Amino acid sequence: MIELRGITKRYGTVEAVSNLSFRAPKGQLVGLLGQNGAGKTTTLNILTGYLPPTAGQVLVDGLDMLAQPRECKRRIGYLPERPPLYDEMTVADYLRFCCELKEVQRRDIPRHIDDILNICGLTEERGRLIGHLSKGYRQRVGVAQALCGNPPVLVLDEPTVGLDPRQVVEIRELMRELGKEHTVIFSSHLLPEIQQLCQRVVILHKGKLVREADMSELTDTGNVIRLRVSIAMPERQLVPALKSLPCVRRVKTLPTMDAEVTEALLECDAADKPHGTPQAQLFRLLCGLDAPINMLVQQRDTLEAAFLRLTAGDTIQQEEG
Question: How far, rounded to the nearest angstrom, does the alpha carbon of residue 97 sit from its chain's CA centroid?
Answer without folding.
Answer: 31
